[in-house]
Amino acid sequence: MLEETTKKHSIKKYYDNVNVGKRTKQVVYLSEQQDKDAMFELYLKSNEKKQSVVVVKSKRRADELCVYLNSKDIDATVIHGNHRKEQLEKGAQEFNAGSINIFITTDKILQSLELNHIETIINYDLPSEHEDYFSRLLLVDEVGESISFVSPEEEGYLATIEIRLKNEISQEILEGFVPTTEDKIIHKIKEKKKKPRHRKNK
C-alpha cells in the first residue's frame, strides 16, 4: 500500500508557474507593433495547419486581425464577447472538430470555452497581468507550445512573466521577415539579464 502511494506521488504533476513553464515549449519573436501583422502572417504560412488559438487584447483587435489574415488568404475565425452564446459554442465545436485551425479570441472568452487539441497558443498581444499568460500556457501544458509576438511596449510584461517563470523564454528569429521601419530591430539572442531585448541600429 505504501509503495502504491509513493508511486502515485512520484507521478503527480505540479501546476505552479515554474513547473508548467519547464514542461512547455515557449518562444518569443520580437517585432515593432506596426510589423506584427506581417510577421504573424509569415509565421502562419509555415504553421497554418496547426490547431492554433490566437489571443489578443481587445475585441476590436481580434476583428482587425481576422480581416487582415483573411485578406491574405489565411482562413481564420474570430470569436469574442460581441458574439452570441450560440456563436461561441459553434466556434468551439468547429475548432474541436478540426474544421477551424486558427481561432482568434480574447482572454475573457478563452476562459469560458472548452477548447481541445490545441497545438499552439499564440500570444499576439502579451497580457498585462502575468496570471493570464499562465492561464493560456496551461492550455498547451506539455503537449503544445506557446508563441509570443512582443513589441518594445510589451517588454515590461515579458520581464514580469520571466521573473515568475524563473527562467528566460527562448528568443528566435523568423526567417525571411523584414521589418518595415528604417531603424530595424536587431534580432539577436541576448545574453542573460541584458535588457531591453529590442535593439536598434544607430
Mean of all residue-level pLDDT scores: 85
Major sheet attributes: 7 strands, parallel
Task: Write out the CATH superfamily name.
Answer: P-loop containing nucleotide triphosphate hydrolases
* CATH topology tier name: Rossmann fold
- SSE-based structural type: alpha/beta
Q: Tell the overall outline.
A: globular
SS field, number of helical segments: 8
Report the strand count: 7
Order of helices and strands: HHEHEHEHEHEHEHE
Distance between the termini: 68 Å
Q: How would you write the strand order of the largest sheet? A: 3-4-2-5-6-1-7
Poorly predicted runs are: 1-11, 185-193
Provide the helix percentage. Answer: 25-40%
What is the level-2 CATH architecture name? 3-Layer(aba) Sandwich
Strand content: 5-15%
Total number of domains = 1
Q: Using the CA coordinates, give the radius of gyration.
A: 18 Å
Given this structure, which CATH class is correct? Alpha Beta
